[in-house]
Amino acid sequence: MSIDIKTAAVEEKRITFDHIARKLGEGKKPNRYQEVVFGQQPEEVFHYRPTWDPERELYDVRRTAIQMQDFEDLLDPRQYYYATYVIQRSRQQESQEKNYSVVEKRGLLDNISDELKENIKKVVVPFRHAEWGANMNNFHISSYGFQTPIASAATMQGMDRLGNAQYLTRIGLILSENDPAILDEAKELWLHDPMWQGLRKVIEDSFVIEDWFELHLLQNYLLDGVFHPLLFQHLENHIVTRGGAAFAMLTELFIDWYAESRRWTDATIKVAIDESDQNSKLMQSWTEKWKPEVVAAAQRIADAVFADQSEEVMRSILDELDDRSRKLGLLN
Amino acid sequence: MPENVFIALQNTPEAQPIIEAIVADNDNAVVNESPGMVKIDCPKRLVLRRETVEEKLGQEFNLQDIHLTLISLSGNIDEDEDEFVLHWDF
Amino acid sequence: MAKNQRRLNLSQKYQLMTRGLDWETTYQPMDKVFPYDKYEGIKITDWDKWQDPFRLTMDAYWKYQAEKERKLYAILDSVVQNNSQQNISDARYLNAVKIWMQGVTPLEYAAFRGFNMLGRGFRGAGARVACQFQAIDEMRHYQTQVHAFAHYNKFFNGFNQHARIRDRAWYLSIPKSYFEDAMTAGPFEFITAISFSFEYVLTNLLFMPFVSGAAHNGDMATTTFGFSAQSDESRHMTLGLEIVKFMLEQHEDNVPIVQEWLDKWFWRGYRLLGLIGTMMDYMLPKKVMSWRQAWEIYWEENGVALFNDLARYGIRMPKHHETATREKYRITHEFWSTIYQFSHATALYTWLPDEEEMDWLCAEYGELFEKLYKPRYEYWRELDARGERFFQKRLPVVCNVCQIPIFHTYPDDPCKNICLVSEYKGTKHQMCSEGCKDIFDREPEKYCQAYIPPQQIYQGNCGGATLEDYRKWLHIRDEDAGEYYGSEDNQLWEKWQAEAARV
Lengths: 332, 90, 503
Hints:
The complex is a heterotrimer of chains A (332), B (90) and C (503).
Chain A: H1 18-24, H2 32-37, H3 82-106, H4 114-124, H5 127-144, H6 148-175, H7 181-192, H8 194-206, H9 212-240, H10 245-275, H11 277-306, H12 310-328
Helix pairs in contact in A: 3-6, 3-10, 4-6, 5-6, 5-8, 5-9, 6-10, 7-8, 8-11, 9-10, 9-11, 9-12, 10-11, 11-12
Chain B: E1 4-10, H1 16-25, E2 30-34, E3 37-43, E4 45-49, H2 50-57, E5 70-74, E6 76-79, E7 83-87
Antiparallel strand pairs in B: 1-3, 1-5, 2-3, 4-7, 6-7
Helix pairs in contact in B: 1-2
Chain C: H1 10-18, H2 30-33, H3 58-81, H4 94-121, H5 125-153, H6 162-168, H7 173-183, H8 187-216, H9 220-250, H10 254-283, H11 291-310, H12 321-326, H13 331-342, E1 349-350, H14 355-385, E2 409-410, E3 413-417, E4 420-424, E5 427-431, H15 434-442, H16 444-447, H17 453-458, H18 467-474, E6 482-483, H19 488-502
Parallel strand pairs in C: 1-6
Antiparallel strand pairs in C: 2-3, 4-5
C-alpha cells in the first residue's frame, strides 16, 4: 500500500487573519469579499493633518453627520470586490457590444421617426452629462467615505457612471453616424436649454455637498431613483411603442445596471436608518430638502417629452420611489 | 550619457510574438531575460509595430493587448492603432 | 441626413467618449466645485492640453482587467489547491512576503484612497479620469495581495496581525508615514510624489527585480499578482510622467515648485526603498539581482535618462542623488544589521547570511562588505553559537522624517554614524541625512507632527514601558518574532522537507 503524502491534507495553523476572526467570530471562514473590505482602512497613528482639511484626520468619521457603531456595516449585498466586479461588467459589456454593433451595422436606428430621433438627441444624449456628474459625486463618496465597504463600492459605482456616460455617447454617435456635432448640440442643450437647467442646477449644487452620506442619498437614491426610471423606463417605452424597438437594444444595459446598483444603494441606506433614530431623522431631512428640487427638475423634462401624459409618468415614478422609501424607513 | 528606453514583458507564450516583433523592428534592441520576465533596452527610441506582431502571430492583433503582458516601461509614449513608440527627446 | 459614416480611431474615440463630458459650472463657482487644486500654487492655464497616452475607455478597461483577473485568480486558486506554499525555495523567503503584506499592501490601499481624491479633485476631466482608473487599479492591487497572502497566513506567522501592526509597529511607520505625507499634501504634490517619483522613478526597483525574485524562489502567488499589478503600473507611471510634463509646460512658475517636490520625493522614496533593497539582498534565498545592480540599472541608467529628458523644461537631477548612489554599497547591509538586532520587536524573523550568501554579498559589494559588514556578521555568529543571539535592549533613535532608525553613516565615511538635528519651536528633531534634514527644514510644521514610535513607547502610550507590553499591544507573540532558526516557521518548513524526502 502506498500513501501519497503530497495529496494528504496539510494542517492549517489558522483559518484567517486576526481582524477577520474578531469580526466574524472564531472558526468562521471569510469569503473573498469579507477578506478585503474588513480592517483595511487605517485606524490610528496618523502622522500629519491633511493640508486640505487641517481640522480633521486623514480618515475621519466626522465627514458625515451619520453615526454608526461600525461603518463596516455598510456592506454591498452584491459582494463586489475588484475581480468579481470587472468580470461581471466585462461579461455584460460583451453582450451589450453585440447589441450596439447590430444596431450600428444594420442601421436599425435609421428608420425611426424624426420625432423619436429628436427625443434621443434632446433627452438621451444630454443625459451623458448627468451621468458624468454622478461619476464625480461617487468619487467624492469613495474619497471621503468612512471605511472600505462604502469606499470600494462607490469607486465601482463611479466607474460605472463613466461607463454609462460613454454608452450614452455611443448612442448619440450611432444616431449621427459618428458625427460629433450631435454631442456638441447636446452639450449646448445641457448648458442652456431651460428643460435641463433644473437638473444641471441640482447636480452642480450636489458638487459642493461635503457630507458624503448626504451626497450618496441625493445622487444614488433620489436623482437616480427619479431620472433612471424617467429615461430608461418611461422614455424608452415611449420610443419603443412608437416604432423604435431597436432603441431598447441600446438601453437594456441601463435598466439592468439600475436594478443592480439600487440593491447596493438601498442596503446601505437601510443599514444606516436602522442604526438609530438620529440617522433616520437626518436622512428624512435630507430627503425633504432635496426631493422637491429633483422632482421639479424631472418634471421639466417629463413635460417636454410626454406632454399631456407627463403628470401620469411622474406620478408613477414618484409612487414607486415612495414605496421604496417606506420600505427603507425614509418615509413614514 | 544614459539614453535607453525600455519595455519589460512577462516571459509568457503570449508575449513571444511581441518580443520577436520588437527585436525585428529595432536594430539596437538588447534583450535581457530574468526569471519570469524579459526586459528590452534600446537607445533613445523603441517601436512596436502592429503589422510585425501580426506577421509573427499569424493573426490580427490589437496593440492595446500589450497591457495583458506588459510589466513596465520607460520613455515618453506615443500610441496609435499601428504603432507603440517609446522615446526620449534629448 | 448625409450618409457619412466615419470610422473613429482610438484617439478620436477616447476624445469623444470622455472629453466633452465635463462643463464649466455656473450655478456653483468652479473654485468651490474644485476647492483643492489651486492652493499649492500650481498654475494650469489649459486643462485641455492634458494628454492621456493610453486612452482607455470603460469597455476596454473592463475587458482587459477581467482577463487579467481571470488568469490571476486561476493561479491563486491553484496555489491553494496544490499547497504551493510547499514549493517555495525556503521559508526564510516568506519574511520578504511578510514585509510586503505588513508594509506594502497598506500603501496600495492608501494609493486607492489617494487617487480617489484626485479622481474627484482635479479640475481637468482627462486627468481626473486617469486618476480614477488608477484608483480602482490600486484597489485591485491591495485586494489581490490580501487574497494571495491569505493562504500563507494559514501556515506561517507574521501575517495574521497585519491590520493592527500596519498602524502601530515602529518599523511600519516607515511606509505609513511616507504615504500619509503624500496624502496630506495637495493633489499636485501627491501625484508628483506617487505617480512620478515613486511609480516612475522607483517602483521598477520594487516590482521588477523583487517580483522576478519571487518567481525565482517558487512563489507563484506573489509572482502572479506582482507582474499582473505591474502591468497596471505601467499606465500609472505614464500618468506620472505626463502630469509632470503637463505642469512644467503649463506655466514657468510651476518649475521651481515641481523641482522642490522632485527633490523631496526622490529622497523620501529612496529611503523607503532601502527596505526593499534589503529584502532583495537578504531575504531571497535564491538571488536575482543585488540592490547595487538594480540601482545601477533602474536609477543610474533609466532614472538618469528620464531626468535628461526633463532637462529641457529646466529640471535638474534631484538633490542628493549623488549620496544615494554613493550609499548603494552599504545601505542594505546597514538596514539588515538594524532589523537583525531589532527583530524581536517585529513580526518578522531575521538570520545571518550563510557562507554561500556571504560569498555572493562579497562578490556584489566588494571590499567594503568584506571589511565592514562581514566581520560584524561573523561576530554575531560567534555570539549566536555561544547561545547569545544578539538583540538590542534599547529602542533606536528614528529619523523624524523617514522614520528609519538612524543607523546611517556619513556619505564619505561609512564608519562614522550620522545624526543631524534641527530645532523647531524649542524641540530638537533628529534626522538621518542631509536629504531628510532638508525635507524637515522646508516644512517643519508638518514633520513636527509626526508620530515617533520610540518616543511614544517611552512615554508609555503603547501598552506599557517594557518590550513585552509593547509586543502585546501589537498582538505579536514571542513566537512571531526574532531569530529565524528554531522559529515556528523554520520548524514547520523542516517538517515539510522531511515529509517530502520520505516520499
